[in-house]
Amino acid sequence: MDIARVLIVLIALQATTPPAPATPSFEEFLAGVRAEALSRGISEATATMALANLELLPVVVARDRGQPEQVQSLDTYLAQRLTARTVATAREQALQHADLLKRIERAYGVPGAIMIAIWGIESNFGKFTGSYPTIAALATLAYDGRRPLFRAELLEALAIVEQRGIPPGDLKGSWAGAMGQPQFMPSSFLKHAVDFDGDQQIDIWTSAPDVFGSMANYLRSAGWRDDERWGREVSISKSVMARIDRTVPMRAGGCRAVRELTTPRPLAEWTKLGVTLTGGRPLPVSTLTASLVRGRQRHFLVYRNYDAILDYNCSNAYAISVGLLSDRLGS
Question: How far is the C-alpha of 300 from the C-alpha of 223, rounded, in Å?
Answer without folding.
Answer: 20
